[in-house]
User: Fold these one by one.
Assistant:
Number 1:
Amino acid sequence: MADDDASLLEAAWEARERAVCSFSHFKVGAVLLDDAGRRFTGANVENASYNLGLCAERVALYHALTHGVGTIERVVIVTEAAEPTYPCGACRQALWEFAPGAEVLLANRHDQRRIRVSELLPHAFDASALPDP
Ligand code: THU
């Protein structure tokens, strides 16, 4: 099957190779899969003005959102850290906003973890807390 774990992981590793991370040297690759089977990839991008950098997950997510993504069902994130790495807090918030029902697969070269976006950000803040405009 085209969208099985192995295939998505391969795409994430490939995306990771395009990371622009000359400051941290920490490459991250991400792939989103939507309900139509479309994939959107991203890698982290850094800047000499450090706070302008963007994580792989949000690069993939914002690309997906501006290129007609449907319902995001899966998120795959790969690094070569000693343990599979969980998304940062900012990415959890962004994923909650746009992919609340997604399953997340985290992997390094020899290990994997599976968790849902809803588990990554319990008690999330979102638009449900805001007054009607
Ligand atoms: N990074 C990601 O791409 N995703 C995360 O969830 C955590 C961190 C990137 C940001 C930065 O380019 C590098 O990893 C080191 O923090």
Note: The longest strand covers residues 72-78.
Number 2:
Amino acid sequence: METVFTYYGHATLGLRTAETKLIIDPWFSGNPWVKFSAKDVNADYLLVTHAHGDHLGDTVAIAKRTDATVISNFEICEWLGEQGIKTHSMHLGGDFQFPFGRVKLTTAMHGSSFPDKSYGGNPVGFLITTLHGKKIYLAGDTGLFGDMALIGREGLDLAIIPIGGNYTMGPDDALEAVKLLAPKQVVPIHYNTFEVIKQDPHTWAARVSAETNSEPVVLKPGETVVL
Ligand code: NI
Ligand code: MN
């Protein structure tokens, strides 16, 4: 059994594990990295880190069309539930065994308002443990925080972290994050989509290689990491 991680672009990510298709932060419409429509996307579960438009994205449309279950914090699940969407609400520090693996909601230092300005609760990251024991940490939009060291103690196979700066960690803090998380592999995301988050991921990757034991993996949209 293998797990395939896909980078669609910005913070839109895919994970296929135990024959289950997960999409994390399913922003397709208006995402400049993505060349296909949200109508062509299939999912069993949608994981939403927070309510900002570049993460909530096409959650409502995809969930309605595919009948996917949304996993997110309580506030986002309430907002989606009012629109008739199937949800599994959780919150920070809580974990739950789903048929595809275990999901834990982790701290993220950020904001979380919906495009309609309503409150989206605390933003989250996700720690996913697959049925074959692979640990994948999706940081979500966040600044650097010291408790990443606790998440790192889990023994991460793959970490996906923002490097864009301005709204999240920039390259310097993201490098510190890699030192705390100590994942086998790390994929940088949330850069170059907008002018204020312009970064060179390859320069950053060279620093990760020089200063840590983690392997940086810079992905083009549509590229994958197989675990
Ligand atoms: Ni955000
Ligand atoms: Mn964002």
Note: Residues 25 and 149 are 24 Å apart (CA to CA).
